[in-house]
């Protein structure tokens, strides 16, 4: 094995160990905390209907939004997508292109039955650590409950971004480090 292959293997072992630790100590559930009034439950048909309300248009790996109010609908780990990832408009971790001055209404849905997730926005750039300290978070959901009983958690928040480059990330340990993030360009 060459040095690069050994480094990659060690990295995956470290990330895997962090994920196992999180599951073992119930971190996915514990970090989600109690279901507060900002988190609601939806069935799969309701989730599919919510996904259709995203107001962006897809071009390649970018979802472009226009207008004074935009609606972003992001889901964590929909069936058929790799874990961990976000999906917007059937794209894995797409770049979101948003007009400056727009009001951004975000709906975040956690469909992953094994973990809580978060959809948080930051200007901190990748790479992200396995045990992330992503500071500051400029908007977001915080940790979601773990879906159960055939229902999925979702919540909404509103963001008023200024021009710049941002990233949407999951703050569960190991998730952003293994690719659960995407770029937001506000211009």
TrEMBL record:
UniProt cross-references to Gene3D superfamilies, sorted A to Z: Cupredoxins - blue copper proteins (2.60.40.420)
GO MF annotations, alphabetized: copper ion binding; electron transfer activity
Q: Could you tell me which residue ranges the Sulfocyanin-like C-terminal domain spans?
A: 85-186
- Which of this chain's residues are annotated to bind Cu cation? 117, 170, 175, 180
Q: How is the cofactor bound?
A: Binds 1 copper ion per subunit.
Q: Which InterPro entries match?
A: BlueCu_1_BS, Cu_oxidase_CS, Cupredoxin, Rusticyanin, SoxE-like_C
Signal peptide range equals 1-32
Task: Tell me the PROSITE patterns matching this sequence.
Answer: COPPER_BLUE, MULTICOPPER_OXIDASE1
- Matching Pfam families: SoxE
Q: Which cofactor does it need?
A: Cu cation
- Keywords annotated in UniProt: Copper, Metal-binding, Signal
Q: What is this protein called?
A: Rusticyanin
| Protein's organism | Acidithiobacillus ferrivorans
């Amino acid at each position: 094995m060459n040095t690069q292959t050994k480094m990659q293997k060690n990295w995956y072992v470290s990330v895997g160990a962090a994920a196992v630790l999180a599951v073992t100590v119930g971190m996915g559930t514990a970090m989600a905390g109690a279901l507060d009034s900002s988190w609601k439950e939806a069935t799969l048909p309701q989730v599919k209907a919510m996904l259709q309300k995203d107001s962006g248009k897809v071009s390649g790996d970018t979802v472009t939004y226009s207008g004074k109010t935009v609606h972003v609908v992001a889901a964590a780990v929909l069936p058929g997508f790799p874990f961990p990832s976000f999906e917007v408009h059937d794209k894995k971790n797409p770049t979101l292109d948003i007009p400056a001055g727009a009001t951004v209404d975000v709906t975040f849905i956690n469909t992953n039955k094994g973990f809580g997730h978060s959809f948080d926005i930051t200007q901190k750039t990748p790479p992200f650590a396995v045990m992330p300290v992503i500071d500051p978070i400029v908007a977001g959901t915080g940790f979601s409950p773990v879906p159960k009983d055939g229902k999925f958690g979702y919540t909404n928040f509103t963001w008023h971004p200024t021009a710049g480059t941002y990233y949407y990330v999951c703050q569960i340990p190991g998730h952003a480090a293994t690719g659960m993030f995407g770029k937001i360009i506000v211009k």
